[in-house]
Amino acid sequence: MLVRLWLFGCSWAVRLIQKKCQGFAKRGCVPVLTAVVFLIASSLPAVAQSGPPQSPAPLTVLYEHFFTYQNHLDRFAATLASLGKDGSDFRNHFQQKMGFTDDEYALVRSAGAKLIADLAKQDAKAKAVIDAFHQAHPPGQVQSINDIPAPPPELTQLQKDRDQMILDEMTTLKSALSTTLAAKFDDTVKNEMSPQVSYRSIPVPPRNPASSPAPALKEQGVQ
Asked: Which end of the chain is more exposed for a tag (fewer CB within 10 A), N or C?
């Protein structure tokens, strides 16, 4: 079993914000980027900072990271518009890089909005499983790596389904674009996201039955 950690860098976002917000800074209008870290096994012991080397992130992670950031830029541009300011440079940043028209990039925005909504529903399912797991294994119970309980098996399938949802949405989007535009989209996502997103897999050794015996059958609800 692998615990997979995606580390999302924000240096590119910061550079973009600094470059485009110089005119707003003195007016007190500076965007704030928020990073959300979703830790599944918060009851597990802390992992040492040193670990396996990073490897290129899978496409599913790059696509999701791209659409999450585009959504952030759209919302920030809308906030600027509500204040009577022009946020088009933020909203159209990636569109300009790809060379898409408004109608062409509308397909990208639509796919991103649908994907983010679908992933939120999938994540809600995973959260319910994780919350139940945490309730069954509250913090403080795990004293060593040999005490780590096996992750809920439902999470494996939920993750597979989640990855497939991203791939399916990308297939639908690319089929709506021309071959040339689909290639531009892919190239931009990879070139912009890959240097800022790192991927690391950490192997978790199997549970030691001697130090962490399985509960009695009656405790598992077996009659």
From this structure: C
Q: What is the pLDDT of residues 86-126, one digit of tens each?
A: 999 999 999 999 999 999 999 999 999 999 999 999 999 99
CB 100 within 8 A of CB 108: yes
- Cα angle 207, 213, 218 (rounded to 5 degrees) comes to 130
Q: What angle do CA 92, 93, 99 make, to 5 degrees?
A: 80
Question: Phi and psi of 205, rounded to 5°?
Answer: -65, 150
The model's pLDDT over 22-33, given as tens digits with 9 standing for 90+, comes to 444 344 443 333
The answer to whether the beta carbons of residues 91 and 222 sit under 8 Å apart is: no
Tokens encoding 29: 């209008």
Which H, E and C letters describe 116-150, residue by residue? HHHHHHHHHHHHHHHHHHHHHCCCCCCCCHHHCCC
Contacts of 7 (CB under 8 A, 6+ apart): 54, 197, 198, 199, 200
Q: Count of alpha carbons within 13 Å of 159, Cβ hemisphere only? A: 12
Tell me the C-alpha distance between 55 and 201, whole Å.
9
Domain total of the chain: 1
The boundaries of the domain holding residue 153 are: 2-220
Q: Quote the strand ranges of the chain, DSSP E.
A: 2-8, 55-56, 197-203
pTM over 0.70: no
Q: At which residue do the structure tokens 């209008």 appear?
A: 29
3 contact partners, CB below 8 Å, separation of at least 6: 40, 41, 151, 201, 202, 204
